[in-house]
Amino acid sequence: MINIHLILFLAFGAVCVAGAINLLAQTHPINSALSLIAVMAALAGEYLLLGAEFVAAVQVIVYAGAIMVLFVFTIMLLNAGVEERTKGSRVAVLFGIPGMLLGSILVAWVVLRHSGTEAVVAGALPGAPKTIGPLLFHEFLLPFEITSILILIAIMGAVVLASKPPSAPARKGD
Amino acid sequence: MPIWVYILASVIKSAIVLVVLLTAVAYTVWLERKVVGHMQNRWGPTRVGPFGLLQPAADGIKFLFKEDLTPPHVYKPLFLAAPLIAVIFALTSIAVIPFGNSIQLFGYSFPLQITDVNTGLLLILGVTSIGVYGVALAGWSSNNKYSLLGGLRASAQMVSYEISLGLSLVGVLIMSGSFSLRDIVYAQQGHFWGFIPRWNIFHGQFIGFFCYLMAAYAETNRIPFDLPEAETELVAGYHTEYSAMKFAMFFMAEYANMITVACLATLLFFGGWNGPLFGPPILQALLPVFWFAAKIFGFLFLYIWVRGTLPRFRYDQLMSFGWKFLLPLSLMNLIATAIAVAW
C-alpha cells in the first residue's frame, strides 16, 4: 500500500513540472495562466498526500480558484495577444537556462547532502482543520492579524489607485 | 472490508449516483418547462409521451444528432475544453454529498455516499471555484463580443458571490464543528420541545440560509442573477457560439450545479435526510433517502418558481447587492453565531 502513495506523488509531481515547463514554453498568456492553474492543482494533490487536507483545499479555493480567475479575467479584458520575441527575450534564454540549471544543481546538492535524514511521515504534521484552527487563532494570532491588516492596506491602496481623482469634476458626455 | 469489495462498491455507487444525477438533470429541465409553462398560462411540453414525459429523451437524441458546428474564428483548444471543464466539475461535486445513513449488505456497512471526505464542504467549494473557468474560457475562446461579455460577467459575478457563499456557510460550520457533510447532518438530529426539528434553519441560521440561497442563485447564473446569458442584451452570453452536444454540456452543467446547490441547502440548513420514520423496517430504511429527495425537489421547485416570478437585475444592482448588502449581512450573521455559540 505504500506504493500507491509513491505513484500518486510521482504523478502529481510530473503534472507539476510539465505544467511549469509549459507555462514558460507557451507564447499565449492565457495558455500560460491555465498551465499555472494545473501546477497549483497538482500542488494541492501533493499536499493532500501529506495529509494536509485543509491546506490542499485552501490552495485550490484561493490560488487555483480565486486568484487565477482574476489573472484570466485580466488577460481576457486586456485581450492580450501572442507574446513577441525580442532581443531581450533571446538574452533571457541565453542567461536564464544556464542560471536555472545552476540553481537546480545547487538545490539538488543541498538536498542530497542531507539525504541520510529521516523523511516526514505522512500525517505526522498537523494538517486537519481541527489542529490548524487553534494554531492559527491562539499561537500565531498576532502574525495572522498583522497579515490581515497588510491585506486591508493593499485593498485600500488598490481602491485609491483605481478611483478617479476627486478634484476633477465629471465632464458632460463622459 | 477487503480492498476489492471497497473498489467494487465505489464503482457501483458512482455509477448509480451518476445515472440518478443525469436523469434528475434531464427531468429538472422537463419540470422547469412544464411549471413555467403553467405559470405563463401555457401547457409546456405535451406531445412526446404522456404529459410530455419523454421530452428529455427526445431532446437528448436531438442534441446527439445535430450538426456540431465549430465557428471558424474560435480558439479551438479552449473552445472544445470549456464545456468539458464546466460539465466535469459540475458532476464532480456530487461525489461528497451523502444522501442517507449506512446500509448493511453481505455483512459489510456501506455509507450512502460515494466518498466521505472529512473536508467535504471545502472540496465542494474548491470544485465550484474551478468550475468558473468553463464559463469564462467559453466566453473568451468564442471570439465573439457577446460571448466575451457574458464570460466576463459570469466570472466577476461568481467570484463576488463566492465570498458571501463561503461566509454564509461558516455559521453552520461553527454550530456543527465539522467540515464533513455527514457530521453536519448528524448534528441536526432531534427536536426542540418535541416537535420542531433541530434543523439549522430553526436553530438561528435563518439569515445564513437567506445569504446562502441568494449567493447560490448567483453562483448558478439563474434568474434573477442570470446576467451572463441575458438574452435581451447578450444574445445568449457565453454559449452563443455553441451548438449540439457542446451546448448541451453547458446546459447539463447548469442544472447539475442547481442540484448540488439544492443538496447543500438540504444538508446544511434543512437537516439532510432527517425526517419522521415509521412503518416496517424496509420503509424505515428507505424513508431517509425519500426525505432527502423530497427536500431537494422543494428547492428545485423554488428555483423554477423564482424564475417564473422575478425579473432580471441590472448589472450594477447585482454588484451592489452582492458587495454592499449580502457580504455585510453574512458577516454579521457569522459574528452573531460565533457570539451565541461561545456563550
Question: Would you write up a description of this structure?
Answer:
The complex is a heterodimer of chains A (174) and B (343). Chain A is an all-alpha fold. Chain A is built from six helices and no strands. In chain A, helix 1 runs antiparallel to helix 2 (29-49) and helix 2 runs antiparallel to helix 3. Chain B is mostly helical. Chain B has one domain (3-342). In chain B, helix 1 (3-39) crosses helix 9. Chain A binds chain B through residues 30, 34, 37, 41, 44, 53-54, 57-58, 60-61, 64-66, 69-70, 72-73, 76-77, 128-129, and chain B through 78, 117-119, 122-123, 125-126, 129-130, 132-133, 136-137, 139-140, 148, 151-152, 155-156, 158-159, 162, 179.
Please give a handful of descriptors for the protein shown.
heterodimer; A: 174 residues; mainly alpha; Four Helix Bundle (Hemerythrin (Met), subunit A); globular; B: 343 residues; two-stranded antiparallel sheet; 4 strands
